[in-house]
Amino acid sequence: MKTIFYTMISSCLLLAACNSNGDMTTIINNNGSCERIFSSAVSNEFIQGDTTDHPFPVNLTGWAVSWKAKDEKLRTQWPFKNWQGEKNDSLFKVTAFVSRRFASVRDLSDSFRFKNSYPWADIRIRPVLEKKFRWFYSYYNYREVFSGLPMKLPVPINRYLTREEAGYWLTGQPDITRGMNGAEAKDLLDDIGAKARKWFMHNLFEFQYAALLDNLSLFPGSPDRKLMLEKKDSVFALSDDNFSETSIVTALNKYFHTKAFNPLLNDKDERMKKITDPESAGKVSRYFEADIKYKLIMPGMLLHSNGVLSGDTLSWKVNAYRLLNGNYTVEASSKKLNIWAWILSVLIILAVPVLLVKKTYKK
């Protein structure tokens, strides 16, 4: 009984290390305009113009495409019909970039959407830029809000974790490990991780149990729906702590003193997949098929951010894990020196004595 949801938990939830689908970079310009760039490894077919199954999360209409092979210079000719690449070289890599300029961040907010086939098609992104002029400096405050998953899990996280624990486990904030040494932090995280896993497994149980109730006719001799619904929490309590792939069957048979649910163990019975791989769990796991390494370049000198700075680029890892319990926000503030204001101020300062002298001389 191998569920998609169970696999997702094992690979993504517990390790929190899903592979990124590529980079999404936003560049904020001095005048408030911006540019968004996606990068990804691509096939030779894509370079030749085949966009049937391209890796980018947006429709390419209106986006400029450029690319490069290995360490070669960037090429803007696309599609390149005669491109062959080096098919026998496993290390040969072709990277493509799709970019689009926006007159303002508001324009970006109004027109940017993920393509319909992307796992995050119904995730909305709301970027906002506040620009303030303060004579010597211009200040930029940028934030981009990724909407939380548009579906709620049947068991809320606060059943297992405190607000602070849930925030740290899912998004890294607040930093509840501040002041702890490594051993203390490990003990805390081990405890939170165990509770988080129990929370997820409880949701998997809820998905499977709901599907089971909808398909009770497949299990002759099983208790009636009303009784099973009434005893749901008691059945879950009998599930082993590790929630193995057979634990729901064991718990059902043990609680109701029956073997009516043994067919669930038959992986070859397609009818059982309605329960072992319920559609509701599949909808959740679909969001975990994508995640983005988000990058942001701000004008001027960085003042504040909740991202990781490397050179002039801020970065975040945005994945479904961070969106499980609500919206996720990336934000940054910077200031840009207004050179013309400084020059004008110096000229005014220098001009004042000259004007005073001239005025005195005229008297």
Can you walk me through this structure?
Helices cover 35% and strands 22% of the residues. It is of the alpha+beta class. Helix 1 runs antiparallel to helix 5 (182-214). The longest helix is centred in the middle third of the chain and has 33 residues, at 182-214. It is elongated.
Count helical runs: 12
Helix percent band = 25-40%
N-to-C CA distance: 101 Å
Q: Order of strands in the sheet with the most strands? A: 3-4-2-1-7-10-9
| Mean pLDDT across every amino acid position | 87
Overall structural class, as computed from helix and strand content, comes to: alpha+beta
Number of domains: 2
**pLDDT < 50 stretches:** 10-19
Q: Given the C-alpha coordinates, what overall shape results?
A: elongated
Number of strands: 11
**Tell me about the biggest sheet?**
7 strands, mixed
What oligomeric state best describes the polypeptide chains here?
single chain
What percent of residues are in strands?
Answer: 15-25%
Order of helices and strands: HEEHEEHEEHHHHHHHEEEEHEH
Radius of gyration: 28 Å
Descriptive labels:
alpha+beta; 363 residues; 35% helix; 4-stranded antiparallel sheet; elongated; 7-stranded mixed sheet
Summarize the structure.
By secondary structure, this protein is an alpha+beta fold. Helix content is 35%, strand content 22%.
Sequence-ordered SSE layout with sheet pairings:
Layout: H1 4-13, E1 23-28, E2 34-41, H2 44-47, E3 64-69, E4 94-102, H3 105-111, E5 125-134, E6 137-146, H4 163-171, H5 182-214, H6 225-230, H7 232-237, H8 247-256, H9 273-276, H10 279-287, E7 291-297, E8 301-305, E9 308-310, E10 313-319, H11 320-323, E11 328-337, H12 339-362
Helix pairs in contact: 1-5
